[in-house]
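Reopening this one. Same input as before:
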Amino acid sequence: ILTLGTIFIVTDVDDKSETFMSNIKEEIRQIRDPMSHNPYDDGQCTQYVFDKVNEDKMMIEKSWSDAEHWANRAKDDGYEVNDTPKEGSLLQTESGPIGHVAYIENINEDGSIDISEMNLNTPHEITNRTIEQENIDKYSYIHPKENPYAVETD
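Same output, byte for byte:
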């Protein structure tokens, strides 16, 4: 019996196969990986952004709650938060009942940014729009960290 925190893995002592060890390593990686489970509410902007960051092999925290809190909580957790959008960073606003976050897909030559987002108007609905350069300063930008536990896929 191996004890990993509160997880117990029971195995036959004679089973030392490569497959078994590979499975153990993957279980440990998933336990450590902060992006292995999306805790945000289904159909919400926070859920969508979490998944987009995970696709990039980057990370954000699971404890930021509603979007209105993300910039402050990201700062508290040591993330770079500023007024400079970058591809792959997160646009955040406290506007609306519980704020909003979106994923920055592209920075355009004219200074505008292309974003994708979920639940701007309807849960589960993914939309794309462009934020014009003159409106860039109305938002905060959260820059995800590299995820040391991300697995490269071919």
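So the earlier flakiness isn't reproducible anymore. For the record, Strands lie at 2-4, 7-9, 58-59, 80-82, 90-93, 100-107, 113-118, 126-131, 140-143, 145-146.
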